[in-house]
Amino acid sequence: MDPDRIALGSMARQLRLKRDLRQVDVALLCFVDRTYITHIERGDSKAPRTFWERLDRALVAEGNILAEYDARAARANTSALTSNGSAAQAVDLHSILSMDHLDADLEAWVNMNRRKALTVLSLAGPLALLSGSATDPVSRLRALVELTDSHYDQLGPQAVWSLHRGQAAMADRLLNSCPTGTRPPQLLSIRAELGRRLGWMAYDAGDLEQGRAEYTKARKHADDANDPRACALVLCNWSLLETRDHQPGIGLDHAAAAMEWARTSGDRRLIAYASDMSAEAYAARSDERRCRTALDFAEEVISSGAESPTPDHTYGPGLSAGFRAECLLTLGLPQVATPAAIACVEQFEVDTVSRGFAEVGLANALTLGGEVDEAARLLGHGADLALAFGSPRLAMEVCESHERLTVSAPDASTVRQLGAKLIHHGLAPADL
Fold first, then answer.
1. Could you give the 3-state DSSP secondary structure of residue 2?
2. Taking the domains of the chain in order of start, what are their residue ranges?
């Protein structure tokens, strides 16, 4: 765990106790869910500066919490810059990204975005693996896949799609070169993960049939690898696709299977993920009782802080809060959805794809609550991110949310300005 997060969380807890406040009291003052304060105090969650400003005011810390946050953030940034600088000198980025298993689309993207790619990918440890210190091709491939996954938010779906396609082609060549019956389970697991990611990005692009095809292949590779974690992850993603495609019964089937594999794996975070996917399906079926039971179970598991190999960008407190907000909105409960939506937003860095989706969720809650201007502002930022990262799904969700906002407040100037921005970005027709 991050020692800076732990230290800040401990400081927050000590000040809260000194003020004789409960976690729920602080949560109300900071406009977040109580569980968010729990994660902060334990050092589980990364929060933006805006949250620490509110917390400083809530605890009457007279700027001490904010000063501590700023000091630690400055040290972390200095360390990162030093690391990136040394890595850039030691590694030739083009030689890594133009390996023969990557395709022309990726090379074109690198040529157009070389500075951005160098900033994002010049990480000394992972790049050392890719530049030759790990001679095993399976280890090299896993390192590249993990590096790509961890920077999805910075690179955006178009670049990552190209990267993963090339990595999948390399994995297939390695698998095909193995004698019958001797395919390494580690390589099969990597191929399952790549299939899962490709399925998710097909879903992100609105190609649900391609998403299903990728998930089908990924599920088989996970089973061939005898990898229960991979099985659970694929089925969780597949469940959400079916639920969002208006087939919550099938989504529920996949979520139930995911739960069995998650329990087999012993990964508590995956158990919570499967429960959240059940909640999504129950919400789509308007089954409030079962939905809220599944949400509460997932929240309890996440709040336990159990160690998990599943990273936050795959599923963690932020995404869990987002699923909770989404389910409660589907059930028509904006008052209880809003705190969860705020908690989700504050888990992600400002200019990232995940932040865009989180802000759309919060905008939907605010729309139902009558807070039109703030909802329009959030959707405007989401539109900017959809354009910057080329995410069709984010663009679609922004436009759908704008339609709901227009119905709610057709004469509001902020709503008209948002419509003009969508037209300018090419996300909506000119006759909107």
1. coil
2. 1-90, 348-432
pLDDT tens-place string over residues 172-218: 988 888 887 788 899 999 999 999 999 998 888 888 999 999 999 99
Q: Show the CA angle centred on residue 359, arms to residues 353 and 365, nearest 5°.
A: 150
Residue type, 253: D
Q: At what angle do helices 157-176 and 104-112 cross, to 10 degrees?
A: 140
CATH number (1.10.3720.10, 1.10.10.10, 1.10.260.40, 3.50.50.60) of 1-90 reads: 1.10.260.40
For residue 195, the number of C-alpha atoms closer than 13 Å in the C-beta half-sphere is 26
Report residue 115's pLDDT band, with 50, 70 and 90 as the boundaries: very low
Q: In angstroms, how far is the first alpha carbon of the chain from the final one?
A: 48
Largest Cα–Cα separation, the chain: 68
Give the predicted TM-score (pTM) of the model.
Answer: 0.69
Q: Where are any strands of DSSP class E within 172-263?
A: none
CA–CA separation, 273 vs 212, rounded Å? 19
Cα 19 to chain centroid, rounded: 35
Query: Identity (one letter) of the amino acid at 61?
Result: A
